[in-house]
Amino acid sequence: MFSFEGHRIFYRDEGAGDVLLCLHGFPTSSWDWSRIWPQLIQRFRVVAPDLLGYGFSDKPSRHVYSVLEQATLTERLMESLGITHAHVLSHDFGVSVVQELLARQLEREQAGRPGLVLRSSCFLNGGLFPEVYQPRLIQRLLASPVGSVIARLFNQRSFERSFSAIFGEKTRPSKQELNEFWEVISHNAGSRVSHRLISFMADRVRHRERWTGALQRTRVPLRMVNGSVDPVSGAHMAKRYRELIPNPDIVSLEGIGHYPMVEAPQAVLEALFSFSARSAQE
Fold this sequence. Notes:
44% of the residues lie in helices and 16% in strands. By secondary structure, it is α/β, with parallel strands linked by helices. It has helices spanning 37-43, 67-80, 94-111, 137-142, 147-153, 156-164, 175-186, 194-197, 200-206, 208-217, 235-244, 260-263, 265-281; strands spanning 2-4, 7-9, 11-15, 19-23, 45-49, 85-90, 117-123, 222-227, 250-253. Helix 2 (67-80) packs across helix 3 and helix 3 (94-111) packs across helix 10 (208-217). The chain is built from 13 helices and nine strands. Helix 3 links the parallel strand 6 and strand 7. It has one domain (2-281): 3-Layer(aba) Sandwich (Rossmann fold), CATH 3.40.50.
């Protein structure tokens, strides 16, 4: 556990070598990396937090959650561990945290100030560009004025139905996997704060120019690994990435949905390892 602004933050820190920071998405947790974890820690020292409001971290019920705060939490965690340089693998709303970290890194470079240095960034499916992001109905409801009511009604059955729909047709999670995801989401009444966590969608619109500009101007090597049939941020997000990002590096996974590291773990590992090895030489 790590203390951040009076809140307890859970994280895993395992392995040796270059540091790989893994940032999960909504509404899940660092458990998302469990299917690739054994291979990751053979190659890297892997640090994977449950961000505030998620997993086994504290979930304050009246907190105003923001991507900017989650970025600061990440910086503080890495500082507490004495880590100054890291590769990063991110998913879903975690990609927005990385965009903010890249923007801060650019600002520090211009000002000559020290801070966390990202050595490379590998994005899995996430809403890098809000204009083409396609949130599910449950997300739109949670972000609406009736969000608090929807959060109270949200249960395992409704979670399983909406969650399974964003996977590939042939790679949907088993009942056991759904139970595992729900166990961590619902820990400490976590589903009851989902309407507050969903504020990242508004943050993406608010900071769109800053975060897109960071991707366009950074010197940090970038790669997108994209599950193409993801209805939220699949092939349409990869298309927009090609339009906006110089020299786009994209690995498309056909038939894979929103959770590539769960649906196609070996393909994700191969894409990450080849990318990080090349980035380390640049």
